[in-house]
Amino acid sequence: MMKILDQTEEASPAISYAGLIERIEILRSTLRWSSRLERADIDKLLRQATSLRDEVMQLSHKERFVQAAVAAEPQESADQSRGARRKALLERSFIFEGTFGDNPRLLESLEIAEKAAPTDLPVLIDGESGTGKELMAKVIHANGARADKPFVSVNCGAIPDNLLESELFGHRKGAFTGASNDRKGKFESAHTGTIFLDEIGELPLARQVKLLRVLEAHEIQRVGSDETIEVDTRIVAATNRNLRKLSEEGKFREDLFYRLSVIHVTLPPLRERRDEIPLLIAWFGDEAAGTLKRRPVRLTPRLRDFLSSYAYPGNIRELRNVMYRISCLASEMADVDHLPLDMRPAAPGSTTAAVDGAHASGEQPISVANLMSLSDAKRAASDDAEKAFLERGLREVSGTVAELARRIDMNRSHLQMLLKKHGLHSKDYRNRNVPAGKQNGSSEPGEEDGEA
Ligand SMILES: Nc1ncnc2c1ncn2[C@@H]1O[C@H](COP(=O)(O)OP(=O)(O)OP(=O)(O)O)[C@@H](O)[C@H]1O
Ligand SMILES: [Mg+2]
Fold first, then answer.
1. How far is residue 182's CA from residue 227's CA, in Å, rounded to a whole number?
2. Which helix (H) or strand (E) is 183 found in, with range?
3. What CA–CA distance (Å, rounded) separates 424 from 387?
4. Going by CA atoms, what residue is nearest to atom 8 of ligand 1?
5. What angle do CA 341, 343, 360 make, to 5 degrees?
6. Is 100 in the pocket of ligand 1 (CB under 6 A)?
7. For a substitution probing ligand 1, which of 65, 86, 134 has the most ligand atoms within 8 Å of its CB?
8. CB 196 within 8 A of CB 151
9. pLDDT digits 0-9 by tens, 46-88
10. Which of 65, 166, 404, 425 is the most exposed place for a label (fewest CB within 10 A)?
């Protein structure tokens, strides 16, 4: 029986559906037909199952990636080398952990990660918020020899200064008030695995010395104890700050910076890899559809346009959240009104002046060199037109939302959302001569304007 497994382990490294299915079948029949399994056999089967799972994951990423790439950018010779680079990573059994994209700068980061992963060298990952630093740390862990050992994450910025040391290194019973038991720190928990020190730039100077010592001597002391404990932990750190600059300003120890950044990976912000936005939209749209068990949401050209030109201060996380949000809120087709309010740029002076479309007529200087402001201007004009239309409509129906919805053939809850978005209150448009009670009676109860 184990012989079969041994053979299958040596099967061609190239990933193919047929090969995978065959191996899954072998694994299944092994489990089904063997009356008794030794411990070693069970371990081996579990390892097999894990590696099959990884390959299935990779395959599905690969398939989807290729599909999406073909759909979005059919022909361009530069893309071939990108595609080829990503494919080469796949063929070397690189584990992406869901990292999507083939922008040259992202590929470069992945290729560095691939080389760094099997070593125990410290890695420093920097990049703006939401660029995928934690994901990259997981990629490094997953591609290294420690992959099946713990990955322990510590957010250095979220732990109060007085607890940080105990959190990282543990403490002895009675070391301080409240230390009612001996406690293991994160370094000990990550022994033989990887510790991910997130927001390392927030680490106070006084704590930085202690960290330096772990990096140098690979040992720690629990707070309140003299005993040194050896720890074998691979360190991956991340920050959205410029550590080099911080160290020049004396806010971060230079020696620690150099120790941590033996391998330095900088993740590009999304606005510098705009070429990937359409692919990411499709990717996260599918992902959200899967999670929400619905069909992938479709986007109006206006929304697509917005999403392609938006600046994404929150980077990939923001795009991902937006796709989940609109997938949840929109029924079939999503439009800009499904976006969170704070994502829509405030139209200049939009609260009142909007009605005559002044912005669109060029009163606001538009820098042509900056596509962002042009699309902002278009959006503002379109918002203004929308608001003017709704105001006129409300006047015509004397503030009866149900009637307006019927006349403009719009879903009532959608209309209510639009009114809310523009701060329009149907009651402001009601015919003053008609008592409020009677007015209510003219449409279905409780559904009139949803302003509650
Ligand atoms: N290239 C990518 N492909 C797919 N998903 C990605 C990619 N980059 C980031 N993500 C997703 O975006 C979200 C944010 O990523 P992550 O938490 O790694 O960012 P971060 O840089 O650590 O952010 P922060 O600085 O705010 O902690 C996660 O859901 C992650 O899975
Ligand atoms: Mg993070």
1. 13
2. strand 183-184
3. 8
4. 132
5. 90
6. yes
7. 134
8. yes
9. 788 777 777 766 665 554 444 444 444 444 445 558 888 888 8
10. 425
